[in-house]
Structure prediction request, 121 residues.
Amino acid sequence: ILRRDTVEAERCIKKLKIKLSKLVGKPAEASRPGWLGVMTRWAEIFSATEERSARVLDRQLRRQADPWALLWEDSGALLRLGRNLSLAAGYLRLETSPTLLPHTAAILARANRLERDGPGI
Prediction:
C-alpha cells in the first residue's frame, strides 16, 4: 500500500512539474538541474513517503478505543526491541536502513507486530 501511494504521489508531482514547466517555459526535466534538483527530488520523495506513513499511524490510532494505550504499548515494544543490541545492529547493517527513516510513523504504528516478528528477520 505504501509503495502504491508513493507512486501515485510521484505521478501527481510529475504532473505539477509539467504544468510548472509550461508556465516557466522550460522543460520539466531541466527546471531543477544539478545538486539542487537532486536534493529537491529527494525531499519530495521523503515527504510523500513520510506523509503516507503518518496516515498509517493516524488510521491505527483512530481505530483504537484508547489511542494513548496503543502509543504506550508500541513505544514499549520499540524500547524492548532497541534493548536487543544485536537485533538493532542487524537492522542498521541492512543496505536499505537509511530508507526506513520516513517510515518511522508506520513502524511505530505496528511496533507490537514487529516485536513478535522482528527477531526472526
